[in-house]
Amino acid sequence: MEQLLSQEEIDALLKGISEGDVEAAVEEVQVEAEQTPSPRAKAQILDFAKYTKGRKERLPSLEFISDRLSKSLRSALTLFLEREVDINIAPTQYVEYGEFIKTLPLPTNMNIVTTEHLKGFFIVIFDAKLIFCVLETVFGSNTITVPKIEGREFTKIEFNVIKKLVDIVCAEMEKAWDPVYKIRCRYSRSEINPNYITMISLEETVVICEFTIEVADVVSWMKICMPYGILESIKGYLISTPSREDLEMREKWLQKLRERVKEVPLDIRGILGKKKISVEEFLRIKRDSVIIIDRGVDEPIDIEVGNKTKLRGKMGVYKGNKAIRIEQIID
Question: Does a structural domain hold residue 17?
């Protein structure tokens, strides 16, 4: 209570402040506030290249291709394993390759598949459980047991089975892609460590198509990794999903084109022989002159189609007309 000012002391203090006899402490507080440096916000560096790589346009046709692949692969594996196989599709993912390989177990089975007509490659990845399911089935086991593979590599027998699996996937992948874009898939090599695959950078965006495969109560998976840069070269084909009507119309047009192409006339010539001579020799040619050509009477002659040698045969007579009997087709 002693620290409280009386009314007289309050009046005197206010009078002193108004007349200037007492300096207010507000200015000092303001000065101190002005002198105290305000904390500066820390600037963050934005990696525009990484930001741009992460934002990729989705390709709806890949969903259509994955659906076709799952159906055809189910039939192919059921026939190969002689067991009922069930395959389900997971949503397509667009991620950085570096983030994707962090999710893979070690050792893992990564198979490089080259894609003709697409100028690139895919990576087909199998779960170890799927490989051992196939192994048990191929060698006639009635029950499927999955051993632990942590800390060891695949054997030669296992790699042979893996190659067979890759060949089946390649064949079915060609069928699945056919309505959208015709590709040819060929097995190249296998790796057990993702770091050994240096053809793709860790920052590059990849498209992941994942399939859950169930064989005799054993649930495994298969993943197909496709670099986005390769798919971007044919993005026009992958933007829109082909419908059943589009496929039927396309097939009709292809059939019509095949029929019309067969009606195109061809210029076919049988070349009895050739001889290169100089202008001087040509000027000396007269009636009854003899020109020796580059082949004998009994040798086969070339048949040109569109100025290109496509066939080879021998001269003769057929039903009173001069004819050529085809003996060789030249690729």
Answer: no
